[in-house]
Design brief:
- This protein has one domain: Alpha-Beta Barrel (TIM Barrel), CATH 3.20.20.
- It has 11 helices and 10 strands.
- The protein has an 8-stranded parallel barrel with strand order 1-2-3-4-5-8-9-10, surrounded by 5 helices. A two-stranded antiparallel sheet has the order 6-7.
- The longest helix has 19 residues.
């Protein structure tokens, strides 16, 4: 049901673009980092508050422009309990701005995260616990991270399972259990192969250029959400998002 809600939100905005929020603290504006260090002293609290300030600004930029936001949990959890508080605050802020919210936590199980962050619409999971990883409350969605971009990913994901990669075999199983499929791939062949084998499964694509990601969509521009992770670093994130939306409209028309 929640993925249906997401697709409806994409149709209303006429774009499949989502904003990724969860920055590298070193890439935050120096003046913001210094200001919070002066207020709280050097340490995790100052870093977390800088992330909170940054995140709210990004959500303001995304509101009314795109359908969804992807919050990278790792960026916040590195700051401990105060970082989790920031993450929870941003989930609530995204809901208030009518943004469909995916928490990219890549957990073994969806349920603890959706219990701790009840206003989130979806979370990401790792697929190798099978159907148990997909268990979620009614109205919530799960995206299984079957193909990731970390340097050692291929050690497992590229292993063969019969006539296909293990990542594709895992994706087929997760789609049978109703999960969306998270792909971190810049290769059109990967996306085309996944679409061919998975039928109407919904894709969450990170790091894919429009000319590669276009194969995930049907003729109506349905079937996938793509993320923009660079707009969060732009001096004018709203303008950067507008530019990203314009670029994607040349490749995908959502009706």
């Amino acid at each position: 049901m929640s993925i249906t809600v997401l697709q409806e939100a994409i149709r209303r905005r006429h774009t499949p673009v989502a904003l990724t929020v969860g920055p590298d603290p070193a890439r935050l504006a120096a003046k913001d980092r210094e200001r919070f260090a002066e207020l709280y002293g050097a340490g995790s609290v100052a870093q977390a508050e800088a992330l909170r300030f940054h995140g709210v600004r990004m959500l303001d930029a995304a509101a009314g422009r795109v359908a969804a936001v992807v919050l990278r949990a790792e960026a916040y959890l590195r700051r401990g309990a105060v970082g989790f508080d920031v993450l929870a605050n941003l989930v609530s802020a995204a809901r208030a701005r009518e943004l469909y919210t995916v928490v990219d936590c890549r957990s073994a199980s969806a349920e603890p995260w959706l219990s701790a962050l009840p206003e989130a619409d979806a979370v990401t999971v790792l697929p190798y616990l099978g159907a148990d990883a997909c268990a979620a409350p009614e109205g919530k969605a799960v995206f299984a991270a079957v193909q990731t971009a970390n340097p050692s990913a291929g050690e497992l994901q590229d292993l063969r399972s019969g006539d296909r990669k293990l990542s594709l075999a895992a994706a087929e199983q997760m789609a049978r259990h109703g999960a969306g499929i998270l792909l971190e791939s810049g290769y059109s062949l990967d996306i085309r192969d996944m679409r061919r084998r998975l039928g109407k499964a919904f894709f969450l694509l990170t790091g894919a250029a429009p000319e590669d990601a276009v194969y995930a969509f049907d003729d109506y521009g349905h079937g996938a959400l793509v993320t923009d992770g660079e707009a969060q670093y732009a001096p004018d994130p709203a303008a950067a998002l507008d530019s990203a939306v314009a670029v994607w409209k040349k490749w995908v028309t959502v009706v």
